[in-house]
Structures
1.
Amino acid sequence: MRPSLISLAGAVTGTASAVAKADEPAFQRLAGLASADVSANLQALRDDFALAPAEAERFGAAIAAALGDGTAVRAVTFALILVIVGAGLEWLYWTFAAAPLRAVVSTTATTPRQAVGLALRRLAYVGFGVMLFTASTVGAALILPWPSNVDAIVIAATALVVAVRSAWIIADVVVSPHHPSLRLAAIQQYKSGPVVGGVAWLTMLAATAVLLPQVLTTVGSVPHLAGATRVGMGSLVTVSLLAAVLIASRRDDGRGNGRRKRPRFPKALIASFVIVATAILALVGGGRIAAVLVDIAIVAALLGASKRIVFFFWRDAMGKDEEPATETLPDMLPLIVLAVVRFAAVLMGIAGLILIMRVPLAELTAGSNPLAEFALHVADTVALAFVVYVGWIAIRFAIDRRLRKLAPLDPHSAPSENTRLLTLLPLLRTTLAIVFVTLFTLSALWTLGIEIAPLLAGAGIFGLAIGFGAQTLVRDVISGVFFLIEDVFRIGEYIESGTSTKGTVEHISFRTVALRHHNGPLTFVPYGLLGTVRNDSRDWVIDKFNIPLPLSVDSEKIRKMIKGIGEDLALDPELGPLIREPLKGKLYRVDPGVKIFRCKFMTAPGYQFDVRTAALKRIEAALVEAGISFAGAGPQTILVRRAPDP
Amino acid sequence: MLFSRLIVRRVRLASGLILLLFVAGHLSNLALGLVSVDAMERWRGVLLMPWQTGVGQGLLLAAAIVHAGLGLASLASRHSLVMSRTDWVQLLLGLATPPLLVNHVVGLQVTSDLVARFNADYGYVLAVYWHYAPLFALQQLLVVVIVWAHGAIGLYSTLVLKRAWPWLGPIVIPMLFAVPILALLGFAHAGEAVLARLATDADWRALIEQNLLIQQEMGDCLGVIEAGVFLVYGTTVAAAVGTLAAKILRRRRIRVMVSYDGGLTAVGRVGMSVLEVSRANDIPHASVCGGRARCGTCRIIVPADADLGPPGEAELATLHRVQAPADARLACQAHLLGGAVSVRRVYPAFVDAEAAREPGSWLEEIEPDLETVP
């Protein structure tokens, strides 16, 4: 499928020899390349420092000459015009924009997300000032007739100023030392000022380390002096970074009374190690390897801090504690944002790697560079994982929230319209989890270039073997699916299966349904064995019972009496609402010595017993009142009272 | 204080305006370099000559000394270094000006005052700056920007509080940009011309070098004068800064609590004004003029028995102008005496200069900003 990665697929399927063959020359090549690079770089370093003093002298002489022939004076004159135009226009802007900016910063943010909104407005105000400064400076610089060679210096100086100012305003808006309520990062007040200053200082050093050697090379054509300067500035940056790490890792609160913290991962140590390693790599191994290390370190740091950063903005949702509370389920949004942040971090890291490797775009699309292609595949997989994860979180939260909104499930309460959801949602959640994981695994393997067709085919054959042994299992699962789709029963319903097992449905799983018999025992019935299901809990039930009365009773009178009782029952506050059709009775049969009256009523399912009890109670009372007794089953004793003879 | 603060303030403003007028004329003269060096020379008689007469020189010198002295005196009379960004810029630019400018003034004006045959025309000055002493040129270029920025900011801060600003602004602002830019362009253009003439016109070159010799002969004398100026200036600055530092150090432990409307509290030192306390503690507090008792936007309502220094003449005048009630004070003038104070700010922190020009306009209900309502 993807030829470059067939070796990887081979490793999975067991042909390890292909791996060895493919990798051996690559390692050798890499090692050879590195050693050649190192010696060449060291030689270049030695040259730089040996030749720099002479070049510095030459450069000084050139500057002195430029002073005498008017070049320098002219350049400084024009540079000051740039300052007047750039700084002046920005000042003019601030005479209008200072008041709105003060309005923003004097607002007290109540939630971290509101602070984000305010920070964006603040950044817009300040950023527009810097943009105005940049645009007017560059515009004026384009008009002025610069002496030759000076334009490079002007461009570098402008770039330096803009870089430092941009870093400064971003740090100032994020850390906000003067307006703690607008702060966007979990930084203590006493650290906030130094953080902003440190960021500006480091940016200044780094930008100088990049720009100054360039200017020296192009303007003064003193490449060795430029190289020496690069090394010097680079060391300064390294030392400053180390100092920043050291200061940032102090545990006390600036007044000497440090809070005791749990021992943690020694981040400061690792960071110092990475900084020093980067510096050494940049010195001897060339910039590219150092850049790769920096790229990976930044992505790792971002991934490590992402949770803290994201949940900082949902502090109110997370409670006051800094540590996220584990018992309460966090909101869905921060989790999705967290996923987005992590995904973006990884993606940017990969993009950075591709940029650092300077893979030409043609190779990237044609797929002729195996490393770049692999990076792309990894990016694909990460994207897939991201989509799957976000989808899974969204579905899980939707289901969980719905479930929480519905009442907690009590299998013995009256079934309501929510029972179907309560039955299906947990099942759906488990099913989706399995489907997602399976799909993701297969897609990831496919994206990485591993042939999944044989895997699937293998699974097919294997599955056939299992299938014979698992016929009943499959039957159970499949019939379960159809029982659920056809809504044959829900949790809380009383059913009778074809095997005459009966009870209230308490639990539904993939293979079985658990039925609670009214006497207590819990029966687990596989779906395959359920057969005909009689659901006693649907819509309505009709109940009928007989009343035997003596032959002497007036049938019509009894019928009216029972009807009256039925109407009374329908008005009963408790039972009335459950009755669909009121109680009625009529003469059903006349047997020797007994008239049988049949009574009938319709109720909601499960309540027929209550209603019947109440009806019988009232009928009996009414009969006693009317002086009628129930007919006995045996021969009747008939008392004949003879009238006394006159 | 010897004079009332109102008079001091007016004198300071007037001396600054005199200096700015002179600088504007000088820079306009320089801008004529865009036409030719001859044009510069011709217009020098109109633009600069009045200042080079005895009266003119006396006026300028007096203005410079008064302006610098009053500036340093106001620095010395501060109670803390809590200032707005604009004030910091003004202070640093102002402090930098005299040392950078002294060799220009002494080298040219004093020399031509002392030596009659010394001819400090534009051709000579430009030749020196462009060819013979380029480092001095860089220094003077810097001083052009510094002085002009100081003057422009001062002028703007004064004028923006005036009722006439809405129509005055569109006239003044372009001038604030045009004058220094044209002057620098004129300097560059004339410099090219002078350099070309130096290379071709040998007679003129000899004349210039002869002139240069006079100045070099005067070198020791000029050096003494410059050293004297530096000494006096340095001593004065040191005295001003020392006074301020001593005041801060002496009172650094005497803390005073200030409580604001909205439940905010802040801690300041004895002697600091309420506005300084607000600034030092990042409490939003309007102040358009930056604490000079001119705009009235920093005003606060205080209880009658508040432990604050009594209002001065300038404060009373401003309070009267903005028709403030009797219990109002200007936060920039209300100095803490030692007791805790409770104040209520009148204006929101984000008022602009319009609130100073039209005192009533900002006091009506301010409509809530939808995006900032929590």
Note: Residues 165-200 of chain B form the longest helix (36 residues).
2.
Amino acid sequence: MFLRLRLPLLLTLLAGLVPVVAFFFKDEARAVKAPASWLEQDMIIVAGFALLLGVVNVVQSNMKKIERRDKGWFFAVVLLGGMAVTGLVGALGAFRIGGLPGIGNYPDGRPTPFAWCANYLFTPLQATMFSLLAFYIASAAFRAFRVRNVAATILLVAAVVVMLGRIPVGEGVFGRFTEWLMQIPNGAAQRGIIIGAALGAASLSLRVILGIERSYLGLDKGE
Amino acid sequence: MPAYAFIGTWVAALLTLFLMSFLYKDNPFFRFAEALFAGVSLGYYIGITLDQTLRPNLLEPLAQNGVTPTNFHLLFAGLLGLNLYTRYIPRIAWLARLSLAVYVGYYVGINMVQKLQGEVLPQSAATMVDLTGGGNGALAAFNAVVVFVGVISVLIYFFFSLPHDGVVGRVSRLGIWFLMLGFGAAFGYTVMGRVSLLIGRFNFLVIDWIGGTMRALGGG
Amino acid sequence: MAKGIAKLQTIDRRWIFLLIALGTLIPIVLPIGFPVTITPPVKSIYDLIETFGPGDVVILSYDYGPTTGAENDPMADAILRHCFSRDVKVVALALYPLGGLTSLSNSLNRVTAEFPELEYGVDYVNLGYKDGGQASMKLLADDFAKAFPGDTNGRPLAEIPLMQQIKGAREAKLAVSIATGIIGEWWANLINAQFGLPVAVGCTAVSAPKYYAYLEAKQMIGLIGGLKGASEYERMVKEGYPATREAYANPLLQTASKGMDAQTIDHLIVIAFIVIGNIAYFASRRGKGQA
């Protein structure tokens, strides 16, 4: 029980208190600032490992799909193949194997295999996937924006005014009003949301540090 | 245009068109590009994390200097990081909680200070200003009042412990109107943002792909 | 007639897609050249950098990836051209995992090619990408070397002349975060709040409404919002530094100013669809009322 529950909760408390306590001391307080600095350097490394956790998950689920020949298993092969090739050339570049200078370009400007994958596979795929949203937002605007009640009307009018005020054709008429709308009423609404959300996040953080909120540990029933 | 760039541009253009084909309807070309998108993104993570974080911040300091009093904590970090992967071994999966506890604990600690000192305090201070405008004229006074009323009414709307009747109800309604103004403005900006991304892709197709191919074939 | 108009509500959405596609494509092929008006949040960043001189250091953080490159690349490039035109040193880094490093490298390669007199390590440095988010930011504010032991190629910071001039980010004159999401907020609510470093953010249009709250609370000195903001900054750089006009006149360069033509047409198309949709809605309500 101690190792599986109490020790993790104790570690959360200590790790959470270090940056909080360090905040209240000046740089000269080395006894407090040094552990905080070590922990920050360590968290950079742990974050790197954590980022790659998803890779294991994806490999497991797609391998199962391929083994069972589930519908669409060919695309699981494509996914794993893309990951393996890009990851492999990335790893070779990272450790400078095979004369690779890294994961960027060669000194003469030619891309390494990883840089080629990043520029001609990763970049266009990422960019295009999100660019499709332009079509869907236009369709959503057509279907959903209706003057049904006061609130919906305010939302619609604000959207149209901003869309007109941020293009050259409409700036002359709506530009200054749009700027005022963004800074004052929109600023007020966003500020209310920021304050409310920040208070909620701070209280949740305190609950986690004090061990009241434990869902992040993935506890089994009875623990 | 060098061969690697010519081939790369054509591959990028074809993948772009494969993804855009979904706008007509779902098809195997889109699903191929979608699967490749997921796989290459993960491979990208592997490359940059190894090259930009794990090698320079963990492996090189330990390899070059060994474990010293000043860098022993890196060994601790490496072990914590590797320990995260024990979650995939059922018998010892609980060990991963120790790493997760430190990781989550640190970031919630940072977050708590950040939210209170970096958001609640400055945003509240910027609201609690001279409502007469501080001598900067009628518009400044009007703006200060609008901001004050807006922030208070939005916060009251989000206070669900009180029933929204009577005065509280009317103030909440005002809060909703401010929120609708904010969301409407956000929608207008979202249209701008999404359209910009599409402009980028079409620029690539016209200028880099079609234009680049014509220049390459024309000897440019 | 009301029934006919009401039927517009059920139009196949692929017609909408086609109109948006044409509205985007035609201005790219046949540019219009709409003028750009400068707004105060963008001008305040330009005006601040105008007070910087040779030897001053600006941190430029690439906190975005290819998903929003169309909006953010022009901002980053314009800031770089402005700084380099004034002999302001730039320490460039990336904190966004999904493409920050690629955006950073490509942007630096594009712009430094226009300034052949610049020397890497003296006038600018590429620190690369680092995991850890807020942990990296807190460390680099005090001492870059604690988060970035070397530059993106692994060269130790102790061997880079520019990094002898500045130990931590808090010693810079300004930090500019070109951001797609929350990292720009962290520069304002963590680095500016705890270290007092002036911060400016160039953000996507989707994020811009929220950033206005930080701007109004003086947690940021300026804001470049979306492609419109980027086009404003480009206009100021072109007008202030004629040497940059050649780069912006390059027909192969994708600039924000050129993108505003398509932006204008597409906004008008979306507004037209909203109006048509509401006309169809009222027509269907009248039809139901009469039935």
Note: The longest helix of chain B spans residues 166-217.
